Amino acid sequence: MFFSERRENEAREQDKCLYRRRCILLSNCCKLKTLVPVPLKRGIAMFSEERREQIVALLNKNKKVYVKELAERFHLSMDSIRRDLTILEERGLLRKTHGGAMLPPRFKTRSYPAGSYAREQMEPIVEYASGLLRNKEVIFLGGANVHLDMIGSIPHNLPLTVVTNSTKAAETLRTRKKITTYVTGGKLSQCGVMDDLLAQGITRLFTFDRCFFSASDLWGPGKEPPGPEKLQSIRMLAERAHKKILIATHQELPIESWQMSPADLLSDIITDEGLTKEQHHQLNQRGIHIHAVSL
Known about the structure:
By secondary structure, the chain is α/β, with parallel strands linked by helices. The chain is globular and about 60 Å long. The chain is built from eleven helices and ten strands. The strands form two sheets. A seven-stranded parallel β-sheet has the order 6-5-4-7-8-9-10, with helices on both faces. About 30% of the residues are buried. It has helices at about 1-30, 40-45, 50-60, 65-75, 80-90, 115-130, 145-155, 165-175, 195-205, 230-240, 275-285; strands at about 65, 95, 100, 135-140, 160-165, 180-185, 210-215, 240-245, 270, 290-295. The chain has two domains: about 50-100, Arc Repressor Mutant, subunit A (Orthogonal Bundle); about 115-295, Rossmann fold (3-Layer(aba) Sandwich). InterPro entries: Carb_Metab_HTH_regulators, DeoR-like_C, DeoR_HTH, NagB/RpiA_transferase-like, WH-like_DNA-bd_sf, WH_DNA-bd_sf.
């Protein structure tokens, strides 16, 4: 991070120098003794972070960007653009290539049959959820299939801290060099998850930026509720997280009759576009923000 901060400071100082030179030039031309602000070209007047956000937006739209085109667009030198791309690469938001950059590669933890309905529905939802993650966030992931898929969609060089109560998730995270992984410990269930009091006690040591729930944390008609330890674990996670996010397809949301320990504590649901307007309204009344992902 030291080198990243140094590059950001260098870029900021370069912008200031260019601005000051233009002020001095105008002052000399007008024979003034004070500096007069001069409207600068968009690339110079723009904050560095604002420019980088636009670069990422262009990359997400076009799948790749080129140094020369970005330099012309923002009226900056190609070296300045290269520094921006280097900083964004260190954040895991892109991968530098010769003459430009492309979207970062994604790790895959599971494979779906080609053209399968599960692939068509879940991949865009999981990709969207991974795209919400930010540099150095602390998140919680369980052991559901959607959590394992999400691990595979996290950019390979995005620094994160991940807490999990799943041995499967921990084994997958073990190979990720940029991710610091904590396993809660505790009594291991047959499905490889730890939800007992010991696991909950360790989890309470953390405060999460985002906690991701799955459809397995819901129950309704024809589906038995989880045991008391699982219920207590769900409630505790919701209390320890800033963002409580449910990832599920619209078929997995029995909205009229669903139950969930932190049902009224959910902040977001990431799903597909299959929800009706009435269902949207019901969820919004609960204070839940809906992210409808196009398949």
